[in-house]
Task: inverse folding
């Protein structure tokens, strides 16, 4: 369910009058997405996406997100381009929510990841990193390394019973792993703007080519190679949670063809992957232990990322990923 | 959440090869709808809807539903037209489900019903009834009067505790009302194919005109005037559950302009409205008392229809509805 806020016809009609994008033709809620309300909007001028920002997005961050998308789109990245109203402003208010209209991107996100997707994702990520290099504003990564210990502490706030219920010993395992990751976290690696959530449902393909990158609402300024680590976690494990080194190699090679990785980035790859795995394990664990029964949210299993973490903890070096 | 079945890219691509509707451009889940999985499908030929039929729809009924839609569309009703594959067959299989592609209808369903919607809904319903008159196949209404007592019995199967928990005395109230409704149920009224679920989210408007009727998966062969009673329940009560007789009058007048109501239909209007109200109260009550905690389904409050039922039980005659 990705429609949390309903928009009345009158409100929609009045909202569209603030834009120069033709007349309303159709308006349907989109099922994908879990953070915001997304609508597919068709006008006489074409197809658009209308997003209403729900409470998990900090309104103070919205200009940064929209600015980044505009910056990237103007540099040729296939990402949603915010559409400005007649007054030149893209970020507006609708139905009591901050809201924006963005361009529609063709393509289909891959429900089943194949080897053929991994190269284009690596190349697309590198292109995104290069295109973002001259976007000056900075957004600290609230879900980066500094956020992980507080996140785990919040899941353990009941003395650890809820986490223990997910799997006996899980709290201790995560605390030990986190301590090691933070101690080994690399300093001095190239930084820039990262997508930070480039999972398959945020990447569209069309005719075998990457046609769109969407959902920039976790984007932040952080280590570029950490973004690769997120993608290795998100794209290169098989359904049985074994790591597919052929997929990893395809992704890393395609990335490096656009932005070569430094020696320090390659050395740090295992710990970056550990960090990315624990980040998703921790947010899923928090949601899992804090979702009331009956809530209209699909809880994702944190253990899938604990198992990825265990793989990364055994990776001796970057060769484990296909370098 | 209205996507229960995920379709892989490969399966979708193979499926589209069975049709002559151009190349895939985009494919997104639709949030609306609760019974089936619906996708918005864009091809180089235009916009379509792909529906995967989930387990609450009996596959044996699908040819009847699709045949009715095709019949109605060809007679000028703005309803989805099933798109046949290259072999001439519209009802197919995809991702282990029965599936069909239908045409896309423009428009927006009214989130807030106004008086201006009620006339077009009445006129649209009458046009649907007329256009369906020469569709020969018959589908008994499983959720018609014969189905109500068994439905209530299933909600009371635990001795009535679950229904009592919804509201003390509710089981007795519904049993008494149902007995009266069934005893007074009219015989001999004009019959035909009815939509049976023409709620606001199944009706699209564009530029103030009705532009589409969708979701025919409760359609059946039953009393035509019962379909009006469903619409009076669905469209003419205010958010505080008071009946708006002006809306009722607009709907009934517009309906009668296309298909005049017989005297017997007018006399029966209160009991038909009672029946429609108890039908939705009973299905909601069943879902309410049988939805496990944590299920990804929005439970609708049955009491909203119990309150409508109470209004109809006090209606002396058709004048209460604006006749």
Result:
């Amino acid at each position: 369910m990705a429609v949390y806020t309903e928009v009345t016809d009158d409100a929609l009609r009045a909202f569209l009058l603030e834009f120069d994008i033709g007349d309303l033709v159709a308006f349907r809620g989109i099922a994908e997405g879990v953070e915001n309300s997304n609508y597919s909007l068709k006008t006489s001028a074409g197809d658009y996406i209308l997003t209403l920002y729900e409470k998990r997005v900090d309104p103070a961050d919205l200009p940064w997100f929209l600015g980044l998308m505009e910056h990237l789109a103007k540099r040729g990245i296939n990402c949603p381009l915010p559409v400005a109203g007649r007054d030149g402003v893209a970020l507006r208010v609708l139905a009591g929510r901050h809201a924006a209209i963005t361009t529609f991107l063709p393509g289909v996100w891959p429900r089943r990841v194949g080897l053929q997707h991994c190269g284009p994702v690596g190349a697309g990520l590198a292109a995104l990193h290069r295109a973002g290099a001259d976007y000056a504003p900075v957004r600290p990564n609230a879900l980066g390394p500094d956020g992980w210990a507080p996140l785990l502490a919040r899941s353990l706030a009941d003395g650890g019973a809820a986490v223990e219920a997910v799997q006996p010993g899980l709290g201790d395992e995560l605390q030990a792993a986190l301590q090691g990751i933070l101690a080994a976290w690399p300093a001095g690696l190239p930084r820039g703007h990262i997508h930070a959530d480039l999972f398959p449902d945020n990447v569209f393909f069309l005719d075998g080519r990457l046609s769109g990158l969407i959902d920039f609402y976790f984007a932040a300024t952080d280590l570029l190679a950490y973004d690769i680590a997120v993608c290795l976690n998100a794209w290169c494990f098989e359904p049985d949670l074994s790591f597919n080194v052929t997929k990893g190699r395809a992704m890393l090679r395609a990335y490096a063809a656009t932005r070569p990785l430094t020696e320090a980035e390659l050395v740090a790859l295992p710990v970056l992957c550990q960090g990315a795995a624990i980040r998703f394990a921790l947010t899923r664990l928090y949601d899992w232990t804090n979702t009331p029964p009956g809530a209209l949210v699909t809880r994702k299993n944190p253990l899938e990322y604990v198992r990825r973490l265990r793989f990364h903890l055994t990776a001796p070096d970057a060769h484990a990923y296909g370098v």
Remarks:
- The CA atoms of residues 122 and 252 of chain A lie 6 Å apart.
- Chain A touches chain B at residues 1-3, 6-10, 12, 23-32, 40, 42, 47, 104-108, 110-112, 204-207, 293-296, 298 (CB under 8 Å).
- The beta strands of chain A are 24-29, 37-43, 46-52, 92-94, 97-103, 191-194, 203-206, 209-213, 220-223.
- The two ends of chain A are 39 Å apart (CA to CA).
